[in-house]
Amino acid sequence: MSDRSEIVEALASFASATDARVWPTIRSLLTPDAFAYSRSGPDAIVAQMQAHLGGVGPTQHLLGNHRVTVVGDTARSFTYARVHHVGAGPMAGSFYECPGEYDDSRVRGPSGWLIAHRVFEIRIGLGDFAVLRPAESAG
Predict the structure, then answer these.
(1) Which pTM was predicted?
(2) Mean per-residue pLDDT for 13-41?
(3) Backbone angles phi, psi at 131, to 5 degrees
(4) Residue 137 and residue 84: Cα distance in Å, rounded?
């Protein structure tokens, strides 16, 4: 498989794991010193993702228009995303959709192409941003 294909597959794995809330998979796709979603390190990045998605219903991260540049064991990819979030709990019946673009810097490791730095630029915001919320505590 080409480097480009491996990177596109890694993008799809991250998106699928996010939609399924498989946090160990997300951690495995990040470098130990990764920076994403305004946080550093896999644990902090996952905690930030959980804070935004814990109280959300189903999500779908639809990716396309991949532009990938590989130089040795580093790569940069730009990927359009259309991300749909369905409200849950008190936000049931609402949605938030945010088309935008991922800008990822990657490093090739023994397990594949890992995200070292990620920025998601929201280009359009539709619906109610308040849909993004942490899970409600049980106590």
Answers:
(1) 0.94
(2) 98
(3) -60, -35
(4) 24
